[in-house]
Amino acid sequence: MADLEDRDKTDPIFKLGFEESPVANHIGVLTDANKGLRRKIFDLYTIFEISRHLNSMLNVESLLDATLFTCIGQMGVAGAAIVVQDPSDNKLSHFHFKGLTLPKDVSIQFSRVGRLVRHLQRIARPQLIGELKDVVQPDTEDYSKLKAVEAELIVPLISKGNLLGILFLPRKLSGQPYQENDLEFVSILLNQLSVAIVNAHLYQSEKEALLELRSAQKRLIESERLAALGRLAASIAHEVNNPLGIIKNYLTIISKSPGTSNDIKKNVTIVHEEVDRIARIVRQLLDFYRPTLEQQVELNVTEVVDSTLDLTSQKLQSMGIEISRIYETEDIKINGSPTKLKQVFLNLILNARDVMPRGGKLTVSACRRNGFAEIEFIDSGTGISPDELPRIFEPFYTTKKESGTGLGLAVCHGIISSHNGTISASNNASGGAIFTIKLPLLFKGKND
Ligand SMILES: Nc1ncnc2c1ncn2[C@@H]1O[C@H](COP(=O)(O)OP(=O)(O)OP(=O)(O)O)[C@@H](O)[C@H]1O
Ligand SMILES: [Mg+2]
Fold first, then answer.
1. The whole model's pTM is what?
2. Pocket flag, ligand 1, residue 399 (CB < 6 Å)
3. Given this model, what pLDDT does residue 103 score?
4. N or C, which terminus of the chain has less Cβ within 10 Å?
């Protein structure tokens, strides 16, 4: 309870001239209590408002901003800072501040095993800088960090017994020390903040899970659609194959029969060539759906990519296409059919060649990622328009008029699917297309 001497001299009771009387004393005490009550109501109202506000926010940055601004306004300080846990590495490294000028060379992050963090985790309540003398010694890293943020009051942000972050408040602008009700206020505020941060993280992970589910559904529908198209194409090819064989036999008989004139022989040769062309397409179509008949062997992806590039590099270079290979490691082993995979890589290289008739750059990268061998073919060609993108893996989809059958990518898709992998296309931000293949790794290391 405040003494009469401490009381505000503008208080109306003093003006009445009976400030020394016992009545005045009682009225004075009541006035002080009233002031304290008014401050409490104001604090509670602020807490109520900010809680409502925090609970409606699902973004951690906005939550931290709102908390810092509330502290600055309510505590009468020039600025405030907070460091919170980065969900990706579990370190207290996500630093946020307002109204403070920090030295450039200080990085404000805290190790979970540091003395200050362990102390705050244990004590779980606000600490004035003076109370930390035994915990934070001068010339330690923690000390220079507290100095950098001009910390006078340090408040742990705790959720279910776990330290999620630390709030730092500097000296009050009025020069007054922090009071018990200030500590109470920031404790309640940070309690609200911890609930709101946990909610925001939950919301974020739910959102990511939903997006992942949607994209998995889309991939499933897409690959089922292509598989159905493939089955249809393969069954037609199968039906066409038999009469083709008969036509070829008869053409041979005609051209070899003694009565056939040279003119007819010439025409038969042309028909024969065209029949061969149809036969090639039919073979490709059958490849599209027929599961890899060849036995799969243990192979190094980079070696298969290299040998395919070696086949084509001379031609590409003569067209002014620069080839760049970026292999994160040479050791990317999978189980697969080298000839089938070569066919896939060759189709992608030829497509890249077709979109760079006046030269360009083809980058082929390979790495181990999340249990998969990831191979990318990146060209600097025209890119793929958004209308075309969903259709390019369909059999017979081509934009090359006479020169393309539209089977290259369909075959690639069939072969990669039969290897339990995926193939997808996208556009490069700097122009050109990216084809990404993922094939299950044979041996998964602890980093895969
Ligand atoms: N690297 C690329 N950049 C831009 N568009 C591409 C690229 N690769 C493929 N495409 C588009 O996808 C279509 C289908 O490709 P796909 O390889 O299946 O058939 P194609 O190359 O037209 O004929 P072919 O059967 O001879 O391979 C192409 O016609 C082209 O429009
Ligand atoms: Mg092609």
1. 0.56
2. yes
3. 80
4. N
